[in-house]
Structures are given as structure tokens and as C-alpha cells.
Design goal:
- This protein is an alpha+beta fold and 464 residues long.
- It has helices spanning 3-6, 10-58, 76-82, 153-188, 190-201, 217-250, 252-266, 271-304, 315-333, 352-369, 403-406, 417-422, 429-439; strands spanning 60-62, 70-72, 90-95, 101-104, 120-126, 129-138, 144-150, 311-314, 336-340, 347-350, 378-385, 389-396, 443-448, 454-461.
- Helix 6 (217-250) runs antiparallel to helix 8 and helix 8 (271-304) packs parallel to helix 13.
Length: 464
């Protein structure tokens, strides 16, 4: 037997958690009811027994002779009539304070003589039977005791009937409730079993939502959670497929070019040709590496949407670091790279790694495609701290793009006219920026500069 088989089923656990407390409560309640009923039944029988004792005491008189002793004014036959009970046997005794029998049944004595006015109830053994007795003390016409005893068959039968009529119906009701609960719980667990079977039969490649026919909110929430998980897995798998497909498709051309350059160089004997071919191989490798980095950035963006952490970020620090990082490249290309608005603290509610990725892509695009047509190229990173938001912008004075291309720049594999002319890049830079903006709940705007150039501005939320 496996560990799973040894564990109890959910249905049995629910039944046990419902029926066991219910049974314990029923037992305690039944015991309480029987105890209370027994107490009040005992009170009723004891009251009748006490009335008989007072009746006997009321017929105790002094004899009219000179002795003046105490005697019972009723004969034995009259006492039998007065104390008649069709189901119980009654016994009585009238005793002097010294314990001398004055009238009644011999041998019937209380366990103790008490002169208090309160009746004393007790269980005594008389003629081999346990009787319920009451002893009373009277001081008129003289001090004497009356002991009245009675068999307890009626009391016992009444208690038995109380037990029977209180416990048996409740026990039957409890059994009926157990059967009904078992069926009701089994019916409520049918959707859960159906969900288990649907997941067990499903192919590992099938990530479509599981149909859920829930009769309870809990099963419905479970189905929704499973389908949400399948959706996240499907999104991750789709991102991996897109990444692998894009890599396979986009790297085929640069790798083929590298192979062609290498083959051509191997067929030549001139060292100058070798040098030219090696330079071409290095440039192709750089373009391929840049493409892989961008594809990885897009794949990581798809993964990060589920675990992204946002917090207050110092934009002025990130902008200064990015400008210093790209400054050697800008100097080599003869581009005036500068920052504006980063000389004072500017905070945004975002993610530092994603903002760094945005700046890298925007500055790379600006330096790659933003060269001024007539020289004097300029790239500027600016920060604007508005009352409700923070705006990060990267602008250049390059050739810009047409209005038709402006609407499509954030799509994958779409390049502007400068990129198409240079035959560089892959059209993923602004797509990555757009994806990062979406993850940060920010806004991006792409505008043409006057007289020429391009400006990409991103609006972030300020920390609370």
C-alpha cells in the first residue's frame, strides 16, 4: 500500500469531523436530559412518598386509657386501603424516640434518628430488597418518628422508558444523518473527482483551461487557480517557443555570413584579405550577439511579469550611470551625449533593472541610428519631475522616421528608415522598451523632433 493509499479520503475525513463531535454532543445532551428527567421523576415519587408519611403521622393519637401511649388510630385494613398502590409495595413504621415500634412493620428502621424538622430521604435494605424511604419527626401529640418505604419498580421502569424514548430516536436520527451526510458529501465531491480525472488524463502538452463544473465556491476557486497556473505555464512555454524560433530564424543569416566570410578567407593567401575577412566576422559576431541579447531581454520580460518587484528608484543615479557607460562609444562616434535634469534627486516607483534595460536600448538606438545628416550629432537624456509623475526622455537630432513608421516602431522586427539603410539591428530595441513599460504600468510616447530627430519619452508613477 502506497503512502497516498494509506491517507484517509476527504469524504471520510469530513464525515469524521462532523459525526464525531455530533455524536459526543448527542451523548452529553442525552446524559444531561436523562439526568434532569431522573431528578424530577425522583422528586415526584419522593413527594408522593412524603405525603403518605404525613398521612400516617396525622393518624397517630394518644390512647384514651391511663397510659396515654401513642398509637395509630387506623386499623391494619384501613391502612392498607389508604396506602394502596397497584404497582408498588408500601411499608411504614411509627417509632418512639428510643426506636421502639409503636405501629407498622417490624424491622423497618431509619439509618439514623434525626430530630430536625426536615424530612430525610434515603435508600434502605428491608427484607432483602432496596427500598426508597423517608423519615419524618413529629413532636405532637408527643415525639415520634414515621418511616415510610416503597419499592422502586415504577421508578426504574420510568427511567428505562425515559432512556429508551430519548436515546433510541436520537440514535436513529444520528444514523440517518450519517447516511445523508455521506451521500451529500459524495455528491459535493463529484466535481473535485471529475477535475482530478480531467487532469490525470490530460496530455503534458495540453495547456488549455480545464473545464470545471463546480457546485461549491471552493471547487470553483480551485479550478480557477489551476487554469490560471496553466495559463501562466502556457505563456512561459509560448515565450520559450518564440525565443527559440526567433533565435533559430534570426541567427541563420549572420551565422551563414560568418561561415561565408571564413570560407572565403581560407581560400585566399593574402594576409590583407584575411584581415578584412576577420573584421567582417567580428562585425557579424557583434550583430549576432546584440540580437541574442535583445531576444533574451524579451524572453525575460515575459517571465518577469509574474515576479516583478517595484519600489522607489533613483532615476537620476540610473541616468548618470547609463550616460557614463555609453560615453566612450559616443565619443568614438563623434556624438555629443549629455544629460539634463539628473543633477538633483528624482524618484520613480519602478524597477531598477528594467529602467536600466530601457536606457541601454534607447541609447543604443540613438547612437546607432540618430546621427545628424549634416554632422553635429547630439543625444540627450532628460528627466522632468512633474507633480504627479516623472518623465524620462531620450532624444536625438538624427534623420527621424516617417509618420507611417512612427506607429509601428514598438512592434517586433520593425525598423526605421535609418536602420534599413544601415542594415544594422533587428528592430527589437523599442519593442523591448515597450514591453518593459507595460510591465511597470508606465506610458511611452514616440515623437519626431523639429527640424529632424526622434524623441522617446516614458512617464513613470511617483512613489507614494
Amino acid at each position: 500500500m502506497t503512502a497516498t493509499q494509506r491517507k484517509p479520503s476527504l469524504r471520510n475525513r469530513l464525515l469524521r469531523h462532523v459525526l464525531v463531535p455530533l455524536a459526543v454532543t448527542w451523548l452529553l445532551g442525552s446524559a444531561l436530559v436523562v439526568g434532569i428527567a431522573s431528578y424530577f421523576a425522583q422528586q415526584a415519587f419522593d413527594r408522593a412518598l412524603l405525603d403518605d408519611a404525613y398521612l400516617v403521622a396525622s393518624h397517630v393519637r394518644r390512647t384514651p386509657d391511663e397510659s396515654g401511649r401513642l398509637d395509630l388510630s387506623l386499623s391494619a385494613q384501613e391502612m392498607s386501603t389508604v396506602l394502596f398502590d397497584q404497582s408498588e409495595s408500601l411499608y411504614f413504621a411509627v417509632l418512639s424516640p428510643q426506636g421502639v415500634l409503636l405501629a407498622g412493620h417490624a424491622g423497618l428502621r431509619p439509618l439514623q434518628f434525626d430530630e430536625s424538622l426536615r424530612p430525610h430521604f434515603d435508600a434502605i435494605d428491608y427484607q432483602g430488597r432496596v427500598l426508597r424511604s423517608v423519615t419524618i419527626h413529629r413532636d405532637q401529640p408527643s415525639s415520634f418518628y414515621v418511616v415510610m418505604a416503597q419499592t422502586t419498580a415504577s421508578r426504574d421502569r420510568l427511567l428505562q422508558r425515559l432512556l429508551t424514548f430519548s436515546i433510541v430516536p436520537q440514535l436513529l436520527l444520528l444514523l440517518w444523518l450519517a447516511v445523508w451526510l455521506q451521500r451529500a458529501i459524495a455528491d459535493d465531491l463529484v466535481p473535485l473527482a471529475a477535475l482530478e480525472q480531467a487532469l490525470g488524463r490530460r496530455d503534458a502538452r495540453d495547456l488549455t483551461p480545464v473545464p470545471v463544473t463546480a457546485t461549491t465556491r471552493d471547487v470553483q476557486r480551485l479550478g480557477q487557480a489551476i487554469n490560471a497556473l496553466l495559463g501562466r505555464i502556457a505563456s512561459s512555454v509560448q515565450a520559450q517557443r518564440e525565443f527559440s524560433g526567433n533565435v533559430a530564424h534570426e541567427l541563420r543569416t549572420p551565422l551563414a555570413g560568418i561561415r561565408a566570410l571564413a570560407d572565403y578567407g581560407l581560400r585566399q593567401n593574402d594576409p590583407q584579405v584575411w584581415r578584412e575577412q576577420l573584421q567582417g566576422i567580428a562585425q557579424s559576431q557583434e550583430r549576432a550577439s546584440h540580437l541574442v541579447d535583445q531576444l533574451l531581454a524579451l524572453a525575460l520580460a515575459n517571465e518577469a511579469q509574474h515576479i516583478l518587484e517595484q519600489k522607489p528608484v533613483a532615476l537620476d543615479v540610473l541616468v548618470s550611470e547609463a550616460v557614463l557607460r555609453f560615453l566612450p562609444r559616443a565619443d568614438a562616434a563623434g556624438v555629443d551625449l549629455g544629460a539634463r535634469g539628473a543633477d538633483q534627486p528624482v524618484w520613480a516607483f519602478a524597477n531598477g533593472a528594467l529602467i536600466e534595460g530601457m536606457l541601454n536600448n534607447l541609447l543604443d538606438n540613438a547612437l546607432r541610428y540618430g546621427g545628424a545628416p549634416e554632422g553635429g550629432s547630439r543625444v540627450t537624456v532628460s528627466l522632468t519631475d512633474a507633480p504627479q509623475a516623472v518623465v524620462l526622455a531620450v532624444s536625438d537630432n538624427g534623420p527621424g522616421v516617417s509618420h507611417e513608421q512612427l506607429k509601428q516602431l514598438t512592434q517586433r522586427w520593425v525598423q526605421g528608415s535609418a536602420g534599413e539603410a544601415l542594415k544594422e539591428g533587428s528592430g527589437l530595441g523599442l519593442a523591448i522598451v515597450s514591453e518593459y513599460v507595460r510591465l511597470l504600468n508606465a506610458k511611452v510616447a514616440i515623437q519626431t523632433e523639429s527640424p529632424h530627430g526622434l524623441r522617446v519619452s516614458i512617464t513613470f508613477n511617483k512613489p507614494l
